[in-house]
Amino acid sequence: MPRRAAVSQEEEDSINGDRPDDDDVKLQRAVSDAALFIDWENLKWSLRDIGRVPNISSILDAARERGRVVVARAYADWQQGGHHLDPPNLYRAGISPVYIPSRMGGEGKIIKNSADIKLAVDTIDYAHTSPHVSIFVIVSGDADLVHLATYLRMQGKFVIAIGVSGASSAH
């Protein structure tokens, strides 16, 4: 009786149709868990500078192209800067608004809030408490968040940054 030639596991999987092809790899990546963190104030100001408004559906679609969105948060002072109408729309879309109060300076002028800092802290916390999340989508025009992206990459996470082309991070 002739002996069957040794077949590697990879070849056997390929013969049986179990070996993942490019489409399977893309599908696997598409069903990876993703986290979406939005610096809403920065996004809204940057878009306003070019005569536009945020499109919540487009943001979610961009995140969903990368994976299954398991958490979505938007950060802003919802009582300032025309943001007071945004939380209900964000809730309806499945995005949790996170309130970050602005600091007031002399004469009642808004100095700055720390939405970007809170976003960074929450993102790092989420990366540690939810190790199954491998994709982080960060929406902001704030160049300071490059440090957050670098940290997440060092932790083995895939990072997607979405911003407004040509926007400054002065807001």
Total beta strands: 7
The count of helical stretches stands at 7
H-E order: HHEHHEHEEEHEHE
Portion of residues in beta strands equals: 15-25%
Give the mean pLDDT.
82
From the N-terminal CA to the C-terminal CA, the straight-line distance is 79 Å
Fraction in helix: 25-40%
Q: Could you tell me the radius of gyration in angstroms? A: 21 Å
Main beta-sheet annotation: 5 strands, parallel
Q: Outline the low-pLDDT stretches.
A: 1-20
* Structural classification: alpha/beta
Strand order of the largest sheet: 3-2-1-6-7
Shape: globular
Report on the architecture of this protein.
This protein is α/β, with parallel strands linked by helices and 171 residues long. 39% of the residues lie in helices and 22% in strands. It contains seven helices and seven strands. The strands form two sheets. A five-stranded parallel beta sheet has the order 3-2-1-6-7, sandwiched between helices. The longest helix has 15 residues, at 115-129. The radius of gyration is 21 Å and the shape is globular.
Write the layout of secondary structure elements.
Elements: H1 9-16, H2 22-30, E1 33-39, H3 40-49, H4 56-64, E2 68-76, H5 86-92, E3 96-99, E4 103-104, E5 110-112, H6 115-129, E6 133-139, H7 146-154, E7 158-162
Parallel strand pairs: 1-2, 1-6, 2-3, 6-7
Antiparallel strand pairs: 4-5
List its traits.
7 strands; disordered N terminus; 171 residues; 22% strand; 7 helices; globular; two-stranded antiparallel ribbon; alpha/beta; five-stranded parallel β-sheet
